[in-house]
């Protein structure tokens, strides 16, 4: 009798081996008793699977570290016989699988067709929305998210990703129609919210105080929106679903802001000299530095347009209106933004905290945000009760500017050292003495099994990459979670050059047309990151 062993490989080749005169023998691999030739030829599927299971266990015990690919197709059709472990080990060595699958750090479970089809599907899967109920204030930051960051609480992970998707909706709306007319008041924008339990109540615009010569528009008339002074930058939305309000434990007001997109916004980012916040000119002792923020950020926040109010006026007016509309209900205000939007989110939250005697709890969820102000501004925000959760990618350079390249850890050590108190005071009064605000959730592109370790700056700052990393984050000392739910389709489509080649190849082998995945997607990073 001849039993053939065939193994399909990644490049379509097949390997075949055979053994004649194969008989069944009693051994610890084969629990079957000695059988006749006719019995051997009619082995049942059940007994074969038992044999292979025992064989697989023995090979796992005696072989080197686990092979980084799926061996099931090879073992499924294998036969029995003498010295099986030697025969299979020699066969594996001859196949040179290290050459076929060179990225040995990949978990074989991630390469299964079922898992890849799920991860690369257009419709993403989400972690379940648990009832936050009486704990909503904790997830909203009343205790600065103590005990929820490292390891990352599952409910907080879901909330962070959800607020990030509100920013993606802002990007998508702007990219669908970036032009804004200076001759007449803008019409309301249609925003496709990812969460249908919310409804948009107000469109928000930011205006630059920087002007460019008129001849710039003549050079590229079709790209006039790149030099327009006022641009649609986000929206205000409110939860309007009774079941969702009950789940969250309150009615939530969301303010979502996109990142840098136009040339004038880039120009404002470059104006990185600190400027005093209004109302801080004569406050505090003379030896203490007043609260200051970046000049360009403040310009975009406070400058009105020709036919529209400033971002500051629009936000304050709309939040006051909603507070009056839902007076008597339990409310919360959540400000979320990416890149430039993360910087403006801090200015929004700071002003809202003082715009009324009794304000609802205010929290900021920022992604890839730069430094906004000095230490006095950070203290002011905290003193006003604003809770800030900064999601930071260790590989994202935008989170380390503007200002001097001093780590937050070193800055804190200097402040704790009384011997250098005078030096710290001098640093606080320097024109570029910036400081971050709030609690940090730090992720790392290198922890993702799908992204290349040397991913470029655009990928490390990309909002979808941030949401991908948050969805897979367990703790700072743990690997990327294998049961991450977020779809990879948008990440592969927008950052294909930064995704490991193995996954791109596998996606093509599965005949998944990634080009079609762009339909309905928000091109969240159509422009380069903010060059602050």
From TrEMBL:
InterPro entries xrefs: AB_hydrolase_fold, Fungal_lipase-type
Location in or out of the cell: Plastid, Chloroplast
Example GO biological process: lipid catabolic process
Chain spans, region Disordered: 32-51, 61-86
Annotated keywords: Chloroplast, Hydrolase, Lipid degradation, Lipid metabolism, Plastid, Transit peptide
Start and end residues of each Fungal lipase-type domain: 254-404
GO CC list: chloroplast
SUPFAM superfamilies on file: alpha/beta-Hydrolases
PANTHER family in UniProt: PHOSPHOLIPASE A1-IBETA2, CHLOROPLASTIC (PTHR31403)
Family assignment from sequence similarity: Belongs to the AB hydrolase superfamily. Lipase family.
Name the record gives this protein: Fungal lipase-type domain-containing protein
């Amino acid at each position: 009798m001849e039993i053939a062993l065939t193994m399909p490989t990644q490049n379509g080749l097949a390997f075949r081996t055979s053994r004649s005169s194969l008989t069944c023998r009693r051994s610890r691999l084969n629990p079957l008793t000695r059988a006749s030739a006719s019995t051997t030829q009619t082995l049942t599927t059940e007994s074969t699977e038992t044999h292979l299971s025992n064989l697989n266990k023995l090979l796992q015990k005696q072989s080197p570290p686990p092979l980084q690919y799926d061996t099931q197709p090879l073992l499924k059709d294998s036969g029995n016989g003498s010295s099986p472990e030697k025969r299979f080990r020699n066969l594996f060595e001859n196949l040179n699988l290290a050459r076929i699958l060179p990225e040995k750090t990949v978990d074989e479970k991630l390469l299964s067709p079922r898992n890849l089809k799920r991860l690369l599907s257009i419709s993403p899967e989400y972690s379940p929305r648990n009832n936050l109920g009486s704990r909503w204030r904790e997830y909203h930051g009343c205790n600065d998210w103590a005990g929820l960051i490292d390891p990352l609480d599952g409910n907080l992970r879901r909330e962070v990703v959800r607020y990030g998707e509100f920013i993606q909706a802002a990007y998508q709306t702007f990219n669908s129609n970036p032009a804004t007319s200076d001759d007449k008041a803008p019409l309301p924008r249609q925003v496709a919210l990812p969460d249908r339990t919310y409804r948009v109540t107000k469109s928000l615009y930011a205006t630059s105080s920087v002007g460019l010569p008129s001849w710039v528009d003549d050079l590229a008339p079709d790209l006039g929106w790149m030099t327009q002074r006022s641009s649609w930058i986000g929206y205000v939305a409110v939860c309007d679903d009774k079941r969702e309000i009950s789940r969250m434990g309150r009615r939530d007001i969301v303010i979502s802001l996109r990142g840098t997109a136009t040339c004038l916004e880039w120009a404002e980012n470059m104006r990185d000299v600190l400027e005093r916040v209004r109302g801080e000119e004569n406050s505090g002792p003379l030896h203490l530095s007043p609260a200051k923020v970046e000049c360009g950020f403040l310009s975009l926040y406070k400058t009105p347009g020709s036919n529209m109010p400033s971002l500051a006026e629009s936000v304050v007016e709309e939040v006051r209106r909603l507070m009056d509309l839902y007076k008597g209900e339990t409310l919360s205000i959540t400000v979320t933004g990416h890149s430039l939007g993360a910087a403006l989110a801090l200015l929004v939250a700071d002003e809202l905290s003082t715009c009324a005697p009794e304000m609802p709890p205010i929290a900021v969820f920022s992604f890839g945000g730069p430094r906004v102000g000095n230490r006095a501004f950070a203290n002011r925000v905290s003193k006003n009760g604003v809770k800030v959760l900064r999601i930071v990618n260790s590989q994202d350079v935008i989170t380390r500017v503007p200002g001097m390249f001093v780590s937050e850890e070193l800055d804190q050590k200097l402040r704790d050292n009384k011997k250098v108190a005078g030096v710290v005071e001098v640093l606080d009064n320097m024109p570029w003495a910036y400081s971050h605000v709030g609690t940090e959730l730090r992720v790392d592109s290198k922890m993702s099994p799908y992204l290349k370790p040397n991913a470029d700056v655009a990928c490390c700052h990309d909002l979808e990459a941030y949401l991908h990393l948050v969805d897979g984050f367990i703790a700072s000392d743990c690997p990327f979670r294998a049961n991450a739910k977020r779809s990879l389709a948008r990440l592969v489509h927008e950052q294909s050059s930064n995704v490991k080649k193995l996954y791109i190849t596998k996606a093509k082998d599965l005949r998944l047309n990634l080009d079609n995945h762009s339909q309905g997607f928000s091109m969240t990073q159509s422009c380069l990151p903010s060059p602050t």
